[in-house]
Amino acid sequence: MSVTAANLSGGAAFVSLNSKNIQFESDCSLEMVHATSVLTSALYGKFDEIPTDLLIKFSGTPRYYDTGAITALFPYTGTFPAAGTFYGGGNVAASINSINGDQFILNNAMVGKMPDLILGVEKVILGPMEIWGLIQSGQDPTAAGAYYTYNAAGGSYSFAYPSVAGTALIGQQEYTAVFGSVSGLTSFQAQETWTISHELEWSPVLIQGRTRAFRLLSYRALAKCKPADATMAALLTALGLQGANATPGTRLSQLAKAANGGASFPSLAITGTSNISVTLGNAALKTAGFQFGSKPLRQGEIGFVSTADLSSGAPAAPLTLA
Description:
Distance between the termini: 56 Å
Strand content: 35-45%
Number of helices: 3
Structural class: mainly beta
Largest sheet: 6 strands, antiparallel
Helix content: under 10%
Number of strands: 19
């Protein structure tokens, strides 16, 4: 069987989103999947399918942490997003530009999964992210470009090497953490890396079977590491598992406030030696572990979660980046 070499194509790509060029550490993928309604017959069982929705997902691992592109990569941080807010209805394009000249444009794109943050010397700072493609607002699926525009190599589009705006930091550096004024945790290091992840809960908005937008139901930030110099006593106090502060029904935020001296809700601030800082608002220590052996340090993995003080005014942002 013959193969025409001219029909073969490939090559790495970068993405332009909200006027920011995002370069990637490795290969990326673009998936287009029909959601269907299966047709059945009493005589023959399942015999056909009718497409009802189209799901487009672009995924990859960004290479650079650019302070000028924070709102492009992390659109849901910096404030406490109101539950039920609509996203994906603004027809913001995401252009996937391949070095061989192929271009695939998602005509109504949104960030569905923000990159995790890996804070340390040995690893790339950003984890995988996902960009979702939706039908354009005000468009019918029969319209040309309702979801995407494809420009083939050799056509009207030609690849141009991207520049990286802003500081374009790799982010591989040392970090120091401060957990409010909690005794023993006012300045500590991680043995290896911090991992900051995002707990996003989405609800699709379906009109006649088509996903028209997404509503954000909730967002929390989670932070994990193995501390190097936080004592067992300090961690146990911050957890508040027993004693005067362990009254059944007490919220994690109240336990954190008590460990912070009772004056205020503590935040977890993680700052790099360069100009990178990550802050979990109203953070609470949720989990801690300890290791016993000849090789590991006593401190195992600990985990923080962002909480919210709803007693006065707008709550602190789950995550603030700079």
